[in-house]
Specification:
CATH topology: TIM Barrel
Shape: globular
Number of helices: 6
CATH superfamily: Glycosidases
Number of strands: 7
Order of helices and strands: EHEHEEEHEHHHE
CATH architecture: Alpha-Beta Barrel
Strand order of the largest sheet: 3-6-7
Distance between the termini: 33 Å
């Protein structure tokens, strides 16, 4: 007999709107105290920045209405803008023609083969996740363009490890949704 349980789960926006996504473009509007350069160089303007306090206020406002805010830093795609502050962590930054290297312009995505980039990304995600009361945090994990990793630096790293780019992607895909215990 259905439903099996007398309760169910519903997703309800505060004002019956579709789910809000603050960004799915090549910009970084979140001003994290541990990574101030990202918003300084990656937001559309200084007026287009969410401070840590702004995020906490949004989360509090939503929480008072029974709504859980799921934060996301979409990786490895949608990260081209990181090259403005940390170019060493981005492969194929602003390569042309962009359509050969990315789902949307400009091209550039996290260097999946770099230990330094893995550490940088883990620190970035941790800093953002600490703002949230949610038990989950999303890291996207889509829009990987393999052509972006045909550069000499990436190919050298792959040859040294003997790992393919598909196998190397596993570190990103394992981040897609984090849960706290």
């Amino acid at each position: 007999m259905y439903p099996k349980f007398g309760h169910g789960h519903r997703l309800l926006d505060i004002y019956v709107r579709p789910p809000n996504q603050f960004g799915d473009s090549q910009f970084f509007p979140l001003a994290l105290s541990s990574f101030p350069q990202l918003a300084q160089q990656g937001a559309y303007s200084s007026a287009s920045i969410y401070t840590e306090q702004d995020v906490l206020d949004i989360i509090r406002y939503a929480s008072e209405r029974g709504i859980d805010v799921l934060l996301e830093i979409d990786t490895p795609g949608h990260t081209s803008v990181i090259s403005k502050a940390f170019p060493e962590h981005i492969a194929c930054a602003e390569f042309s023609p962009w359509a050969d290297y990315a789902a949307e312009p400009p091209s550039g995505q996290l260097r999946l083969t770099s230990e330094s980039t893995k550490n940088f990304t883990a620190d970035l995600i941790s800093a953002a996740a600490l703002l949230s009361k949610s038990s989950m945090f999303s890291t996207g994990g889509d829009e990987v363009n393999a052509k972006c990793y045909e550069d000499e630096q990436t190919q050298k790293a792959l040859n040294e490890t003997g790992i393919t780019i598909v196998e190397n992607r596993l570190w990103t895909n394992s981040w897609v949704i984090h849960t706290r215990h």
